[in-house]
Amino acid sequence: MKRYFNNRGYTLIIVLLTIVLISLFSLMLIPKALSTSLQVNKSEGMAQAKDLSEMGIHYAHAYFENIVNLAIEQAKADPGFINQTVNHDLLFCENFISLLPIEQTFAEKSINNSAYYYKVSFEKEVNDFFTNCSGFQEIILPIESIGKVDNNSNSEKLIRANFVVENEGEKSIIGPCQGEICPPPPPPENLPFNIINTEINLSGQTVSNYIYTSPKFTQSVVLAGNSRLIVGGNAWVSGSSLRFNGNNAELIVGGNAYFTSPIDFRGNGNKICIRGTAYLYDHIEKKWNVYDVPQFIKSCSGVNEIGYFYDINQWKINEDIDVYY
C-alpha cells in the first residue's frame, strides 16, 4: 500500500512539472507571437498606405489634366486668340497658372472610412515664371502624396512625382540638319495645321504679319519690300510657291517648313530663318527631302524674337511621370 501511494505521488509530480514547463514555454512564446502579429499588421498597413498614396498620385494627375483642358478652353475664348494678336502659349500659361489651387494641399480624401486616406499637395515656386509666365516653355509641378492608415499599425507612406505639362507638337521638330544625316521628317499630312485659303501678300516698309499657329497656305505667299512673315509653329506652303518679290524681306518659322514647290527668289537681301528644318516635296519620288539652300536659309536674330509655339489643343501632361518612393 505504501509503495502504491509513492507511485501515485511520483506521477503527480511529473504531471505538475509538465504543467509548469508548458506554462513557461507559453509565456516565452506569447510575446514572440504578439510581435509577429504586430509585424504582420505593420506590413499590411504599409502596403495599404502605399496603395493609398498611389491613389493620390492618380487623383492628382486627373485633377491637373482637367486644369489643362480648362486652360485651353479659356485661352481659345480669349479675344487675343480669336484675333491672332497674342502668343497662344502665353495665353495658355496665364490661364493655367490662374486655375492652380491656392492652397498647396489641394486634396484630402478618405477611402471607405476615416482611418484610410490620402493627402495630396504640390509646390508652386515663387518666381517670375509663376508670376508672369516669363520664359515659358513647359510647366513642372512637383507633387507629394501621403497615404495613411490610422489603425493599430499607424502606417504612412510618402510618394513624390513630377508632372510635366508640355506641348506634344514640339516633338515633331527636327533640328536643322542636312542631307543623309537628317532623319525622315514627320509627314505634314499627319500634323495639325490651320488652313489659310486666302493669298498672303505683304509689301511696304517694315510690314510684319504674325501667325501664332501652324498654317497651311493653300494660296500664294508673296513677301516684298522689307516685309516680314513670322510663323510660330510649323509652316506648309502647299499652294503656289513662296515668292520674294523685292529686297530685304524675311520669313521666320519657329518649327519645320514644308514647301511643295521651290522658293521663287526675286530681289536681294531676302532671308529665311527656320528653327527646325526645311523640306521640299519630290513629286517624282513622292517624298519629302531636306531643302538645302544655304545661301538663303541661315540663322538670324529674328528667329529669337518669338518663342516656339504650336497647336494650343496639344497641351497635356506627359505620360512618362517620374515617381519617387
Ordered list of secondary-structure elements with their pairings:
Blueprint: H1 2-76, H2 79-82, H3 88-99, E1 105-111, E2 113-122, H4 128-132, E3 139-149, E4 155-167, E5 194-196, E6 200-202, E7 208-211, E8 215-217, E9 221-223, E10 228-231, E11 235-237, E12 242-245, E13 250-253, E14 257-259, E15 264-266, E16 271-274, E17 278-282, E18 287-290, E19 315-317, E20 322-324
Parallel strand pairs: 5-8, 6-9, 7-10, 8-11, 9-12, 10-13, 11-14, 12-15, 13-16, 14-17
Antiparallel strand pairs: 1-2, 2-3, 3-4, 4-19, 4-20, 17-18
Question: Which terms would index this structure?
Answer:
single chain, 325 residues, alpha/beta, 2 domains, six-stranded antiparallel sheet, six-stranded mixed sheet, 20 strands, Type 4 fimbrial biogenesis protein PilX N-terminal domain-containing protein, transmembrane helix
Please provide a written account of the structure:
The chain is of the alpha/beta class and 325 residues long. It has two domains: 38-169 and 316-324, no CATH class; 174-307, no CATH class. Helix content is 30%, strand content 30%. The chain is built from four helices and 20 strands. The chain has helices at residues 2-76, 79-82, 88-99, 128-132, and strands spanning 105-111, 113-122, 139-149, 155-167, 194-196, 200-202, 208-211, 215-217, 221-223, 228-231, 235-237, 242-245, 250-253, 257-259, 264-266, 271-274, 278-282, 287-290, 315-317, 322-324. The strands form four sheets. Strands 1, 2, 3, 4, 19 and 20 form a six-stranded antiparallel beta sheet that branches. The radius of gyration is 35 Å and the shape is elongated.
